[in-house]
Amino acid sequence: MSGFPTAQSVRSTPEGLLWEPSERRVRGRKGDVTVVDSRHPVLVWEPSLPVPQYAFPRGDVREDLLRPAKRPRTGSHTGSTVFYDLEIDGEVLENAAWTFPSADLADHIAFEWFRRSGKGLDHWYEEEEEIFVHPRDPHKRVDALVSSRHVQVTVDGTLVADTHRPVLVFETGLPTRYYIPREDVRMDLLTPTDHHTGCPYKGTAEYWSTPGGANLVWSYPDPLPAVGAIQGLLAFFNEAVDITVDGERLERPVTPFSALFTPSSPRGPAPA
After folding, report:
1. Share of the chain above pLDDT 90, in %
2. In the chain, N or C terminus with fewer CB closer than 10 Å?
3. Mean pLDDT computed over 161-174
4. Coil, strand or helix: which one is 7?
5. pTM, rounded to two decimals
6. Which residues, in sequence order, are bridge partners of residue 209?
């Protein structure tokens, strides 16, 4: 159960789901159409997913836009029994919504998020703030701290970054990420790419590749206010480079991102 919430407010179901009521007003839109507007959403954690998702009372959902799925998916969500297609202005989004079989969640509907799965609703808001990729986990912290540590980054034996003024990002469940000013990075060794990813805690990241071809380096040009200290700084995947902090070389951590840096998977997403 590592990585999942353990607070007393979190309930479990026989199917292995964890869920918790949220007090945030949450809205989901497809284009200009509001499909869900709820003041009583619940956060749901599936055993196979490390991040939460929202489910909403049926009364808060535009059920008139939902149709029983013509080609329902199987095995894509924990015990899900009913899938829906979403139809808006003649456009049909297959399997955009589903229900869970748990009695606790029987009257709730969950939706796909476009920025996470490539389909589903494309704009989400908690209160008036737009959120991306997936809901932010209330049991997770992300802290960006200005530091004076001496951080060096080596890629394939070449020193690419050397700084005494990094910003360290401590994120629950992930290794410490070291964000480095561009002036302290060998930018001549990096190539900008068109790869971008979204993070619900930090914003939208842009990427650079290293001489080896992998997208090992990212930056948030316009981060969310909570991590504003990392604006424009560059970070490297600890899983694929060698990082030395105050003279101590760190072991490369093994995370879900490690498998991305193989010859068949040269591109990786920003840390969640």
Report:
1. 68
2. N
3. 96
4. coil
5. 0.81
6. 191
Nearest Cα to Cα of residue 115 among 220, 29, 26? 29
pLDDT computed for residue 272 by the predictor:
38
Query: How far apart are alpha carbons 57 and 106 in whole angstroms?
Result: 9
CATH numeric code, 11-131: 2.170.150.40
Residues 6 or more apart from 91 whose CB is under 8 A from it? Answer: none
The fold for domain 142-260 equals 2.170.150
Q: Is residue 217 within 8 Å of residue 208, measured between CB atoms?
A: yes
Q: Answer yes or no: are the C-beta atoms of 111 and 119 closer than 8 Å.
A: no
Q: Give bridge partners of residue 30 from the DSSP assignment.
A: 33
Each domain of the chain, given as residue ranges in start order, spans 11-131, 142-260
- Distance CA(193)–CA(202), nearest Å, equals 19
Residues 6+ apart with CB under 8 A from 26: 36, 37, 38, 41, 54, 56, 124, 125, 126, 135
